[in-house]
Design a protein that fits this description.
6-stranded mixed beta sheet; alpha/beta; 2 domains; 5-stranded antiparallel beta sheet
């Protein structure tokens, strides 16, 4: 199962009212800053409560206002990677990764940490602290921490926007490999349509708290639903 999202939320002078679905694939929430993409991600994760709607993903229901279901973030079992990686500075890379797996025996935890370190090629920096590693390495550590608990879905909030383009390309390839290996829905927030085209199976075009169009990136680029979508995706 992929993701199913129907959400409404009003905050001061901003109103969000969106609905979209995706298969077990990487879906990109695309649009300019302030369009409601990160707000959507936070409501999926349980970090912000919607006014109404329903959120399901990875064969589970996380929120349903009609049925009065609102699972806390820890029960949703979702991996979340932010733009700044949000690593714990006092902990080593190894301990940061293990922090994503609070339960289990010492032997089980160590086995899972080793698995993630190998998968994300972090063995050389396992004992380093976040302040001693590069931006790309920090994001690999954040991904390992998010995935070590076998989440139902992975949420990415512009995780590569602070990286140089060559590093971003490597990270984009890594995310595609991760999605295929773990076979879970991935929801990624981005304002870069190049990133959408290189990574996503589906794009959801956001603008001012509304969804203007959904579809495969190539379809949206070839047949934008109106002048605003054409402007957003950069079609001339």
């Amino acid at each position: 199962m992929g993701m199913s999202v129907k959400l409404s939320k009003s905050v001061k002078d901003f109103s969000l009212d969106v609905e979209w679905e995706s298969a077990r694939e990487l879906v990109a929430l695309f649009g300019f800053s302030g369009s409601g993409k990160t707000m959507t991600l936070m409501m999926i994760a349980g970090l912000m409560r919607p006014d109404a709607g329903r959120v399901g993903g990875g064969s589970g229901i996380f929120f349903d206002s009609a049925a009065r279901v609102n699972l806390p973030p820890q029960q949703r079992r979702l991996g979340y990677v932010m733009q700044d990686a949000a690593l714990l500075p006092q902990m080593t890379v190894r301990k940061n990764i293990a922090f994503g797996l609070p339960r289990g025996s010492a032997a089980e935890r160590e086995e899972r940490v080793v698995e993630m370190i190998d998968l994300f090629h972090l063995s050389r920096i396992g004992d380093a602290r976040p302040g001693q590693i590069s931006g790309g390495q920090k994001q690999r550590v954040a991904l390992a921490r998010a995935l070590i608990g076998r989440p139902r879905a992975l949420l990415l909030d512009e995780p590569f926007s602070a990286l140089d383009w060559p590093v971003r390309r490597k990270m984009q390839k890594l995310i595609k490999e991760v999605q295929a290996r773990f076979d879970i829905p991935v929801v990624m927030v981005t304002h870069d349509f190049r990133e959408v085209k290189s990574m996503a199976g589906r794009v959801v075009v956001y603008d001012r708290g509304r969804v203007l169009q959904t579809g495969a990136p190539g379809e949206v680029e070839a047949e934008p639903a109106g002048s605003r979508v054409r402007e957003l995706v950069g079609v001339r």
